[in-house]
Specification:
About 35% of the residues lie in helices and about 15% in strands. It is α/β, with parallel strands linked by helices. Helix 9 links the parallel strand 8 and strand 9. Helix 8 packs parallel to helix 16. The radius of gyration is 23 Å and the shape is elongated. It starts with a helix and ends with a helix.
């Protein structure tokens, strides 16, 4: 087995890989080889040279199922060949397809106005399993087969392995500069009102919700411990496009105050690479260096602004820039499991089929994905129920939960001025749910 397929197999085995079970599992269609293994997975044609990278490699809808789990490649047939358990369900190719975003290299003409591949265009959404971490379910199925074969694999108790409470800081301040005063005056809010907001203490700025977020996050961390829960704030240091507005400087007095608060709350600081850097990933290195200078610490984490990591191979320059872990991989328009997993996974480049050192943490739930009319357009009760279901499914596979809540989405100002006024209430409700885990 080549290194990538071995990694996929180890990923499916999860913690049980320490038992060195992979030597008992074959990935071959040659009956002459079956006797060497206790369990054999029959490869589909997905990786064949004349198939990979062509339309022939795309799964056909409707999908078959095995034990109630959607199967992208192969058939649900399982048979005995002598003493070898032979599985015709190609869970290795199915996992590879999802973990690598393979679909996106074959459908490069499908992009939204921001150059992103839409979740509602994805196979998991169209096939109805975007809300299920099916790669993790494949792993559970593989482990169950090995238990039936007599291998001593314990069944883990349900639980969330780690919770990431993450916050993208797109607009840290509402009205803290003369530029902001001019903006509000032009919008019709009135010069006097805007100037009064400018003169008030930073803590009174309606977008400066960081003390509230830090308090909520700390309440979970105190219960679960830092090894099981972390807060991460992604900060911008670049970008000149309209989508990168409002521009803010961490070198300003208010910027220093924000950094001091985050450090005092022991939050992790990550790079929120700009919209411009999403279009031109070579800019990420410059932005990372600028954030390291402002924060006075090494920056290891990244999330793209607008979740606009546009092409699967763009991660190469993220890796080259020294970023070790990325938190971008969720669809903007639908919450769920973009990579088919709730566990951190090493990036596999589906173009040159290279296994990298960059770790991807799949994003499960973003606040605006739930509420935006052009996205899921859920009401509060439906959003809470959907989030609870995703959390439950992560528990069942012992995965990680990554939440993304923006500081301005929980602003009292947003609640007064926007059609959706429940992001603050929903975050507080989810925090209460998580403290019970």
């Amino acid at each position: 087995m080549n290194p990538i397929l071995s990694y996929i197999l180890d990923f499916l085995l999860g913690d049980t890989k320490t038992l060195e079970l992979d030597c008992h599992i074959g990935y071959t269609s040659d009956p002459e080889m079956f006797h060497r293994y206790n369990l054999v997975i029959i490869p589909s044609t997905f990786f064949d040279e004349h198939v990979y990278g062509t339309p022939l490699s795309m799964p056909e809808l409707p999908l078959k199922e095995i034990n109630g789990i959607p199967l992208l490649f192969g058939t649900p047939e399982v048979i005995w060949h002598g003493n070898t358990f032979v599985v015709h369900a190609d869970i290795i190719a199915s996992a590879y397809f999802l973990l690598t975003r393979y679909e996106e290299i074959g459908r490069r003409d499908i992009r939204d106005e921001h150059g992103r591949f839409s979740g509602k265009e994805s196979l998991p959404y169209r096939a109805g399993f975007i809300h299920r971490p099916v790669v993790d379910e494949y792993g559970q199925l593989l482990q169950a087969w090995l238990r039936e074969l007599g291998f001593p694999i314990p069944e883990p108790k349900p639980g969330i392995r780690k919770i990431w409470l993450t916050h993208d800081v797109d607009a840290p301040f509402y009205c803290r500069s003369l530029r902001n005063v001019i903006r509000e005056t032009v919008k019709g809010s009135g010069f006097k009102r805007a100037f009064q907001m400018l003169k008030q203490p930073l803590e009174n700025d309606p977008y400066y919700t960081f003390p509230w977020l830090a308090e909520k996050d700390k309440s979970v961390i105190d219960v679960l411990g830092k090894e099981h829960c972390e807060a991460v704030y992604f900060l911008k240091t670049g970008g000149k496009s309209v989508q990168d507005k409002p521009y803010y400087a961490l070198s300003s007095f208010d910027g220093h105050s924000l950094l001091a608060l985050l450090k005092s709350s022991k939050a992790v600081i990550g790079l929120h690479s700009s919209y411009d850097a999403g279009k031109n990933p070579s800019r990420i290195e410059f932005e990372r260096q600028a954030l390291e200078k402002a924060a006075g610490q090494k920056i290891r984490y990244n999330r793209h602004h607008y979740l606009a990591c546009r092409e699967p191979e763009d991660f190469h320059l993220l890796e080259k820039a020294g970023i070790e872990e990325d938190f971008t991989m969720g669809y903007p328009d639908v919450a769920g499991f973009r990579l088919g997993t709730s566990r951190p996974v090493r990036w596999i480049n589906p173009v040159d089929r290279r296994l990298s050192s960059l770790t991807l943490h799949p994003l499960t739930i973003m606040d605006v994905s739930l509420s935006e009319e052009k996205y899921m357009n859920l009401a509060y009760d439906a959003a809470l129920a959907y989030c609870r279901d995703l959390i439950f499914r992560i528990e069942q596979v012992n995965g990680e939960l990554v939440l993304l809540w923006h500081n301005d989405s929980v602003s009292p100002l947003q609640a007064r001025e926007e059609a959706v006024d429940w992001h603050r209430h929903l975050y507080a409700a989810l925090i209460d749910v998580l403290k019970e885990k």
